[in-house]
Design a protein that fits this description.
- The two termini are about 35 Å apart.
- The chain folds into three domains: about 180 residues, f41 fragment of flagellin, N-terminal domain (Up-down Bundle); about 80 residues, Helix Hairpins (Orthogonal Bundle); about 160 residues, Heat Shock Protein 90, CATH 3.30.565.
- The protein contains twelve helices and seven strands.
- The longest helix has about 80 residues.
- It is rod-shaped, with a radius of gyration of 57 Å.
- It is an alpha+beta fold and about 475 residues long.
Amino acid sequence: MRDKGLVVVVSLIAYAMFIAVFVVQQKNLLLRDFDEIQQSVEIDGLLKQVDGAIFQSVMATYANIDALDRGALMQRIQFHYHTLVTKHAELGARAPQYNLNLASVNAALSLAEVEPSRINLNQLAQALLKAKGEFAQIIEQAQQSRKQMTENYRKLGDSMVMTALLLGMLGLALLGALTVLFFRRLKEDLHTLRIRAMDIVNGYRDAPLPISRHDEVGQLMIAINNMASTLDTREKELMMERQKYFHQEKMAAIGTLAAGVAHEIGNPIAAISGIAQDMAERRNANCDIALCQPCRPDLIHIQTQRIASITREISEFASHQTVEPQLLDLNGLLRSASALMRYDKRSRRIALNFNLDSQLPAFYGVADQATQVIMNLLVNAMDALEEVFDRPPSITIATRAQNGQVRLSIEDNGCGMDSATLARVFEAFFTTKAVGHGTGLGLSLCYSIMQKNGGSISIDSTLGRGTCVQALFPTTEAAYNEMKAL
């Protein structure tokens, strides 16, 4: 609003300067017209002097036309004519447009000077009268011109006053209209902000307010939108924490059950294995081959080893692991998780390919959380392959060192995702699975875990071709702490 106030002040100053420039310009025009009128008055004085000189010359000629002393007569005529020529020269210097042609007068005067007879003097008088008549027309023209200039001066003055008055009134009206519009819009926006704040208090978390201003009120709109977004994020994080704790408790219960089952079936399996070994030893020692061969105790031993391996894997998965970050073997975690995922019936038709770097360095992280990320990514890959029947479904797991980090890549040739879905995969509670088959927390939880453990995760997917998920883990405690702080 301060910026808008500054804009208004600058606009008012600019408008006032515009009016001032207009007034100064009109004043200059008035001064110019006034100078022209003043010059016309001065020229009118010269015109009258020239007219008076012509009149004196005519009167001198007629008054002395019968004088006996022709020499004195011509001196008087020449004196008045010289005055006429002098005044006419001054007029010509000031106003050339009013120049009078005295050629006929000069010719008649020359004849009279040579022979000052009555006839020549009459011709001189007639030439002077003719010149006076022509000069009377010039005077009339000058008076009309001055009258027109006076009228223009008056009109210009009236126009300047009216225009300046209208500009002032227009500026005041425009300022008043802008003030009314500004405060009306401010009132509406503040009312909208008040309603939105009350809605947020009551749980509104949908579309943000459109930012229609770029002043302090607009900043307040942005702040309210950020507040709503932050509250929404915090609520989702709290929900995720609740879901995570619930999931951990559930997994703990499953782990406890699995450990109990493994313990309960471990002893019978050990007994079966012992019996099978004893049968094999008896057959090899002195048992009748014909009687012992159908028993095939070696098969019993093989199957018991398989059951023991299964229970061992379940026990390892359910065992309690430290929550403190430590150096971990990513390849080992992948093998353990993949072995456990093999017991999912969906994996029977899926080819699981490994491209693990045998020289892969250890990474720094929390084992249980890293296992959770791996399991979620493998489950998502298997889900994406459920509806694939036009090509052999496969999952490729690859690891390698990259720029001081460890990179995990899990790629499937499943259904893939379009760009709109890909843009929202890390949103909490966003899922494309049917109701009851997913909460939308898997990838969001993976993203949260990777961020909190100094790593990163990204997804590249093409609809109808498959998805590739890449996760980067820090290899040192310093890198772990540095990336975690970002």
